[in-house]
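A further point concerns the way the authors explain their paired sequence and structure data. The central task, working out the structure tokens from the amino acid sequence alone, is never made concrete. I therefore recommend that a typical entry be quoted early in the introduction. An entry of this sort, consisting of the sequence and the corresponding backbone structure tokens, reads as follows:
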Amino acid sequence: MNKFWMSVIGIIAGIIAISNLGSIIGLALSGVIIYIGVHYYLKSVSTAAKIWWGFVAAVGALSAVSNVPAIIGVLAIGVLWYIYKNWNGEPVSAPAKNDPFTNFEKQWAKLNK
């Protein structure tokens, strides 16, 4: 993909991301409300507290459902990240995991040389 089309797609994705910024923030706040509700629901002992924190989590879930357009904004941000990485030809890859078994295999191969 040449730089002209990357810039056109980047501009479109940026407009979409900015226009959905409010719903992205709303979705993030809804996630925080759900997290708080579930966290305190699991820690509460009395039935009344469990009902209250379950209600808080349910309100957060309903709020998250109403912010579904934020998914389009998050996808647009992903497209912007992809274009940013590919602008100068950088490879787009997942971060390397620090797996002890993989590191052991690499070190064992070095020792056996």
